[in-house]
Amino acid sequence: MQVNGFVENSDYAYAVGRIRALEIKRVDTSSLNTLLAAAEDRFLSLFTEITGIDGSDFHNTGLILSNLEESFSSTFRMVKSMLVEEEVKRLISLKYDYELLKIVLKEKRGDAVVVIPMAFQERSNYGFQNLKTALEEGRGTRTGEILLNTYQRLSDLKEPSGSKIDVTCDIAYYTELFTLLEEIQNPFITGYFVRSVDAKNILTTLRLRVRGKKRSFLNGRLIPHGSIDTRYFEEGFDLNLEGFARCIVFSPLSSILVQADRAEDAEEQIALIERSIEEHMLKYLRESVFVTFGVEPLLAYLWEKEIENKNLRTILIAKLSGVPASTIKKQIRGLYGS
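Structure (tokenized):
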């Protein structure tokens, strides 16, 4: 129930209580370390025990990964069902709409038929076939004008590269996202996505530099909705990490660049920065603990579960591939900021 645009506390009383109970059951740092240290002959049984994911068919890694994704999709559906505001429901599914849009466009371009992840379809506002049909029929009232315009603009290009499709769809996604955020008017949610854009732009700048690209490659690749103006990325492009950090000293992410400057090579620096940024985002999400009633704990739980899901995928694939635990640990989020 909404009164004068605000959701009543009672609407989220049960939902937040349920989330608080579920938070206790998350895969914590100790459990992740147990999986990392597990002997080969014990790993899959421990993985099943800790995650609750069916791993009875130990020889079918694809099935275990599928079960892991379905587990997160179940969490996604649960959280979405408890949200009161339709705008917030649309918001959490929006990125999957644009991931499906990328597949539609690449298929239209003539790429080999891509396997459409069932998880994307389950979490999307549309599903693949419904979205594809609405786009082909030009039904903007069904898809929203921004998504439809992006589809039409890229369809009109003679042979858009995969990179062009990805970058254009990502920018369109954030454009529509921030349009929704203006309607929702929630500082916590907006703050999360502003930080996400800043992080994405920092990593884009550093990766282009490592690949030997010129500063001009930043044009059209930066998301224009963060707290850091795009000109600061242009200024920092040719500087070392300490110099880049001085350009964005007003951002809490600047200190992460300074810390990473001690890494031995550029690739290691980027890996360290990416991990540190995600640790920063986790700390931000955990501020939702101070909200007694509201949407914030629900979304924080969902996004933390998404990181947990990525961690478990990384550990599963790497352990079964024989990657040393010390190497895997560098890719795990939440171990250092817990």
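The chain has a mean pLDDT of 88. The first helix runs from residue 10 to 23.
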